[in-house]
């Protein structure tokens, strides 16, 4: 469990929250309670994807991310526009480390501007700061 001081740091910047293992776990639990954990799961999958070295693994991971989060009726479909989805569908044929960048930025922005402020207001977070 984080100290109240550590938890208070998370309110200074969204990146502080994501960089902290307790912060990330707390935020993830909050998103789960709000039925929108697909956003953080997608963001984390993209972070892992960008670290992938092997071209074979890159292609496999790209297809998995696409199947899990991007394609129509995906089990954890994220809320992104049609153009971004189409661009990704084309890009994963020749997967590169940047094929999900636009979607990842969009999801990050959604979390930072919508979920993150609600998280900071939540009783759950307030309790961690006491």
TrEMBL record:
<comment type="subunit">
    <text>Interacts with GNAQ. Does not interact with GNAI1 and GNAI3. Interacts with EIF2B5. Interacts with PRKG1 (isoform alpha).</text>
</comment>
<comment type="function">
    <text>Regulates G protein-coupled receptor signaling cascades. Inhibits signal transduction by increasing the GTPase activity of G protein alpha subunits, thereby driving them into their inactive GDP-bound form. It is involved in the negative regulation of the angiotensin-activated signaling pathway. Plays a role in the regulation of blood pressure in response to signaling via G protein-coupled receptors and GNAQ. Plays a role in regulating the constriction and relaxation of vascular smooth muscle. Binds EIF2B5 and blocks its activity, thereby inhibiting the translation of mRNA into protein.</text>
</comment>
<dbReference type="Pfam" id="PF00615">
    <property type="entry name" value="RGS"/>
</dbReference>
<dbReference type="GO" id="GO:0005096">
    <property type="term" value="F:GTPase activator activity"/>
</dbReference>
<dbReference type="InterPro" id="IPR034947">
    <property type="entry name" value="RGS2_RGS"/>
</dbReference>
<keyword id="KW-0734">Signal transduction inhibitor</keyword>
<dbReference type="InterPro" id="IPR044926">
    <property type="entry name" value="RGS_subdomain_2"/>
</dbReference>
<keyword id="KW-0343">GTPase activation</keyword>
<dbReference type="InterPro" id="IPR036305">
    <property type="entry name" value="RGS_sf"/>
</dbReference>
<dbReference type="GO" id="GO:0009968">
    <property type="term" value="P:negative regulation of signal transduction"/>
</dbReference>
<keyword id="KW-0131">Cell cycle</keyword>
<dbReference type="GO" id="GO:0005730">
    <property type="term" value="C:nucleolus"/>
</dbReference>
<keyword id="KW-1003">Cell membrane</keyword>
<dbReference type="InterPro" id="IPR016137">
    <property type="entry name" value="RGS"/>
</dbReference>
<keyword id="KW-0597">Phosphoprotein</keyword>
<feature type="domain" description="RGS">
    <location>
        <begin position="13"/>
        <end position="129"/>
    </location>
</feature>
<keyword id="KW-0472">Membrane</keyword>
<dbReference type="GO" id="GO:0006417">
    <property type="term" value="P:regulation of translation"/>
</dbReference>
<keyword id="KW-0963">Cytoplasm</keyword>
<dbReference type="GO" id="GO:0005886">
    <property type="term" value="C:plasma membrane"/>
</dbReference>
<dbReference type="GO" id="GO:0005737">
    <property type="term" value="C:cytoplasm"/>
</dbReference>
<keyword id="KW-0539">Nucleus</keyword>
<protein>
    <recommendedName>
        <fullName>Regulator of G-protein signaling 2</fullName>
    </recommendedName>
</protein>
<dbReference type="InterPro" id="IPR024066">
    <property type="entry name" value="RGS_subdom1/3"/>
</dbReference>
<keyword id="KW-0810">Translation regulation</keyword>
């Amino acid at each position: 469990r984080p100290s109240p001081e550590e938890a208070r740091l998370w309110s200074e910047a969204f990146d502080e929250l994501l960089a902290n293992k307790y912060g990330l776990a707390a935020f993830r639990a909050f998103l789960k309670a709000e039925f929108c954990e697909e956003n953080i799961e997608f963001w984390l999958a993209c972070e892992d994807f960008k670290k992938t070295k092997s071209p074979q693994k890159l292609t496999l991971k790209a297809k998995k991310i696409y199947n899990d989060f991007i394609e129509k009726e995906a089990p954890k479909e994220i809320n992104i526009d049609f153009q971004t989805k189409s661009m990704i569908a084309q890009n994963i044929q020749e997967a590169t480390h940047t094929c999900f960048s636009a979607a990842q930025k969009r999801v990050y922005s959604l979390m930072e501007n919508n979920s993150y402020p609600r998280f900071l207001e939540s009783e759950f977070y307030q309790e961690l700061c006491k």
